[in-house]
Amino acid sequence: LPDDSNVIVYPANVLVSVTARVLSGLGAPSDLASLVAESLVLSNLVGHDSHGFIRLIEYSGWVKAGHLQPGARPSVAWTKGATTLIDGRWGWGQAAAALGARHTIDAAREHGTATVVLSRSHHVGRLGEWVDMIAAEGLMGLAFCNTGGAAVAPHGGTARVMGTNPFAWSMPGADDVNLVLDFSTAMIAAGKVVLAAMSGGAIPPGALLDRAGRPTTRAADLDDGGSLLAFGQHKGSGLSMLIDVAAGLLAGTLPAAISQSGYGNGTVFLAVDVARYVAPDSVAAVSRQFANIVHESAPAATGPVLLPGELEARTRAKRAVDGISVPAGVRREVAQLAEKLGVNLPEFA
Amino acid sequence: LPDDSNVIVYPANVLVSVTARVLSGLGAPSDLASLVAESLVLSNLVGHDSHGFIRLIEYSGWVKAGHLQPGARPSVAWTKGATTLIDGRWGWGQAAAALGARHTIDAAREHGTATVVLSRSHHVGRLGEWVDMIAAEGLMGLAFCNTGGAAVAPHGGTARVMGTNPFAWSMPGADDVNLVLDFSTAMIAAGKVVLAAMSGGAIPPGALLDRAGRPTTRAADLDDGGSLLAFGQHKGSGLSMLIDVAAGLLAGTLPAAISQSGYGNGTVFLAVDVARYVAPDSVAAVSRQFANIVHESAPAATGPVLLPGELEARTRAKRAVDGISVPAGVRREVAQLAEKLGVNLPEFA
User: Fold this and answer.
1) Measured between alpha carbons, how far is residue A102 from residues A84, A132, A141, B270 in Å?
2) Nearest alpha carbon to residue A270 among B273, B252, B96
């Protein structure tokens, strides 16, 4: 497990190179290896290390199990009017998502609004990356996906029904920082509970039920037949259900409790061409004014309140200069994977 | 104020007639009076009396102040591809919403997906009504609107910035009951806080800040310069901000903290033609299976866990038979309004 006492700082481009070489070792063609590596390390850059290149470990398990076809290329299954279906062919989810986001942008420009669904897609990474890409083109972006593996109990229930089903929403912002909301509908990430359990720790109340359906803070209760809870009580639970049903049906992955596959992201992108309704100059001016109001909505001593996506943008700017800290435990895991694949990884030796 | 000790039960059609006559007295043409009355009383039928015909009081204030043009008819300002703008002309919001929802359905059928924005629209009523209408046609529906009057502090802030900005999402369901999620992004409705304050009561913790930005349960603190909090901490707060900016920009109402108008719903509808992606039979079968799993996700003794919209559907079926209970206080307020307008209201005498 990550040992924070022995951290080495790497520039992002070194981690992209490391990640791409491991992906090539897993069988990815070089262009897809680069695309997935850039996407994973972008998560490290914006501060979400849980979605960063450590995911190589999980992905290698899928490749080994035969779920993930490392050489598969996503393609457009069909386009009709403002709707498109992308077939991910059970290859790299980021490749399907990048193709889907590009299509979403082009179709929304043409029709004013567009819906693009990704079928047979593995983990698409951070939804925030894709809606940020959409907002950067002057469009409003929405994205949601259901996640393989029922882990979350509905509000009032005690059994695992929904996945951790993330939801993301973007609007073009001022000064090149878009509004980018991206959250899991689970109260806390399953990965954090697993990490807390390994160190024998506890998690905050309100996030977990034990196998008998009782509220618990003992992290090990998740693995012992417990369930995560949704954020925001019945409201967040309702969002999670809608994501599971809508994404599961549109993408064909089915809701997690029905498919029981344990992997795959049924993913839906929607976009609206904001410029059809309001001039880009007005969007920038209103966004700037709104940002100022939010920043100043707390007493000066507290510091500015941040908008959705702003912490990520600041972290990205900082880590692009300062580099990304990689704990010894993460280096060791990735180095071991590389060794098994016969990939030379002097950076992590 | 409502006096629950003196309740009379009315069939829905009597309340529709009462409401329509008052609306006509306010200047609504008879077809619009019927449309708005049906919409308001539908909220009573599904159990949301706060959005029912009691809103006549608020609406009459807007008519009197000259904000609401009771004779104005909404129209399509423009349609281009899969995008449409409806001009509500500051008439009845439900009329704009009904026209908008109808357009959303037709355009999503034609293009596969559609976005319809309502500008210059007054209170559109329950968003759940409009997304349910969209789901009833086999489409996925999304709706959100920003609300006039900043009342909600962003997570981490202590000043009023956002409106109570509701969000709604529907999918076609099984057995004529659609999945219909519809919630305010404020932790609790402003109306409930006002009612609690009038009886000197308290509200649950986590929903309100006092004027100094301190957490409070004293309901009167809202009127005394306090702020509501968003549901779901930073996640719900982020949703509220996206709604305020996206709806405020697309509809031209501007975010509540900028416009400061105190009224109007900048409203956005999106729909996806589900049948382009999956056959209606499969939608019904998967929805039924998912509903069963959710129902049975709690111990039998607890009773079934309900899906979004299910409580409303059950209440509607019950109240359609049993009628709608109207407290003396509500009858008195509406009767007084009718008297001022010269409308004869023997039912409430």
Assistant:
1) 11, 12, 12, 20
2) B273
Strand segments, DSSP code E, in A11-158 are 75-80, 83-87, 113-119, 139-147, 152-153
Q: Within 10 Å of residue A317's Cβ, how many Cβ atoms?
A: 13
The interface residues of chain B toward chain A in range 1-40, judged by CB-CB distance below 8 A, are none
Note the Cα B145 to chain centre separation in Å: 9
- 3-class secondary-structure state, position A168: strand
Contact B46, B315 (CB under 8 A): yes
| Residues B85-136 pLDDT 10s | 999 999 999 999 999 999 999 999 999 999 999 999 999 999 999 999 999 9
Type of residue numbered A256: A
Q: Which residues of B touch A238 (CB under 8 A)?
A: 181, 183, 308
Residue-wise pLDDT for B138-177, tens only, equals 999 999 999 989 999 999 999 999 999 999 999 999 888 9
Q: How far apart are CA A243 and CA A163, in angstroms?
A: 9
- What predicted TM-score, i.e. pTM, was given to this entire model? 0.97
pLDDT digits (tens, 9 = 90+) for A162-185: 999 999 999 999 888 999 999 999
B250 vs A contacts (CB less than 8 Å)? 140, 272, 274, 277-278
Are B228 and B193 spatial neighbours (Cβ–Cβ below 8 Å)?
yes
Q: Side-chain half-sphere of A293: how many Cα atoms within 13 Å?
A: 23
Beta bridge partners of B65: none
Tokens of A59: 């992905």
Q: How far apart are CA A180 and CA A46, in angstroms?
A: 12
Calculate ∠ Cα B342-B344-B345, nearest 5°.
125
pLDDT at B4: 56
Residue A326 · residue A9 · CB < 8 Å: yes
- Residue B278 is nearest to which of A113, A114, A250, comparing CB atoms? A250
Say which of A85, A254, A294 has its CB closest to residue B241: A294
Q: B156 and A305 in contact by Cβ < 8 A? A: yes
Inter-chain residue contact B82 with A305, CB threshold 8 Å = no
E strand segments, chain B = 7-10, 75-80, 83-87, 113-119, 139-147, 152-153, 166-171, 179-184, 208-209, 227-229, 265-273, 324-327
Structure tokens at B168: 């709604």
